[in-house]
Amino acid sequence: MGQAWVWAGGDAVAGAMTVVHCKIRHHRANDTASTMKPIQLFDPASSTYTYLLFDQASREALIIDPVDEQIERDLAVLHEYGLRLVWAVETHAHADHITSAGQLAELAGARTAAPLGCGIGTAGVQLQHGDTLRFGAETLQALHTPGHTAGSMSFVWRDHVFTGDTLLIQGCGRTDFQSGSASALYHSITRVLFALPEQTTVWPGHDYQGRSHSSIGQEKAGNARIAGKSEAEFLATMAALDLPRPRRIDEAVPANLSSGLRHDADGALLMQPRPTQAGYAGDVSPPLAWRWVQAGEAVLVDVRTDAEREWVGFVPGGVPVAWKQWPGMALNPQFDQAIQQAAAGGKKLVLLCRSGVRSIAAAQRATQLGLEAFNILEGFEGDPNAQAQRGQLGGWRHHGLPWRQH
Ligand code: FE
User: Fold this and answer.
1) What is the dihedral of CA 214, 216, 217, 223, to 10 degrees?
2) d(CA 58, CA 284)
3) Range 267-376 has CATH code 3.40.250.10
4) Per-residue pLDDT tens for 313-352?
5) Nearest-CA neighbor of 8 among 22, 24, 21?
6) Which end of the chain is more exposed for a tag (fewer CB within 10 A), N or C?
7) Candidate CATH numbers 3.40.50.1820, 3.40.50.300, 3.30.390.50, 3.60.15.10; the one for domain 4-256
8) Cα of 63 to ligand 1 centre, how many Å?
9) How many angstroms is it from 199 CA to the middle of ligand 1?
10) pTM (predicted TM-score)
């Protein structure tokens, strides 16, 4: 094909690609299945491997387990290869580093995906066993491999498997915290991963000794923890590990449950409704609106158009009551009836639009109808920045609150 392809780790000295603050190796190779490899990137502070896969023709890319301290490196690699990041994917909610998935969504336009069982509410796609993600003509398939955590997944791409902390080279992830289960891990490794073809390349989530990859055949034959072991022997080994608590767990796990987006500034102010003279109950920040919804005190009403919810994304559980409809943006003749129905349970209403303008008009109308209606400040996407891009100056997504895309 004459196009530069990428060998990561490859058969070079283990750790060659792990030097990734500096250079990425290029290697000219034919575009055949056997030569397609992921770009393997390494975070030395947490010994975490991040993987970047891409489709050669469309340049669409997918990243697995990105690390927040490495975001500039990762954006530089995307730029260097002329890639457009379409997916940022987690194998699980990590305890040893914070993900950059949320930032990659904002800065590179990626969609976020995470295993359904990991409680990462901000991920746009919640993956179930067997689900696939497409990037260009390529496909990544999710395998539920619980054990390290209950939600943990591995991902298969061509003849490669990205095992996260489920299966490591000559080892496996720990199972003594975060809903871990040694028994579940035994079954995930022996029945799910070891069922893959033996030549499948294993790309682990970590390595602490500079090794880059392995294969299913090698691990089946020689993995010190599990090869040839009965479940009882494996459980005994895992129970005897007695590992120290991860240094960053208290910081990392909560941050990773919101795709790594943290908004700790002016927390107290964010959690107070602001009174208004404008003919509705008041203004609330997106985090306060979400807290009320979670506490069962309020119903979130999404007053954007059907098209905006469909294309941009939506809040799970929100009630769609368009204030105006596209095309034409004429007032929705069903608005009064639909919003009264949304308030029928006697809860207060929190109204969401794109940037907090339409929701004011809708809240005023709802107040005229006798309802208690609050406007959600900043809306779903916030105001546009100097480059006319939304999503970086506030808004529901910017606060790291749950949202989805179809
Ligand atoms: Fe982990």
Assistant:
1) 70
2) 42
3) yes
4) 999 999 999 999 888 889 999 999 999 999 999 999 999 9
5) 24
6) C
7) 3.60.15.10
8) 17
9) 25
10) 0.64
Write out pLDDT tens, residues 165-188. Answer: 999 999 999 999 889 999 999 999
DSSP string for 51-68: EEEE-TTT-EEEEES-BG
Read off the amino acid at residue 367.
T
* Cα 182 to ligand 1 centre (Å): 14
Sign of CA dihedral 243, 14, 7, 139: negative
Residue 60 structure tokens: 């669409």
CA of 292 to the centre of ligand 1 (A): 32
Please give the structure tokens belonging to residue 295. 């506490």
In angstroms, the CA 142 to CA 162 distance is 10
Which residues contact residue 91 at a Cβ distance below 8 angstroms, ignoring those fewer than 6 apart? 64, 65, 115, 152, 153, 154, 155, 162, 163, 164, 165, 166, 205
Which tokens sit at 394?
A: 């506030």
How would you classify the pairing of strands 201-204 and 330-331?
unpaired
What distance in angstroms lies between residue 119's CA and the mean position of ligand 1's atoms? 14
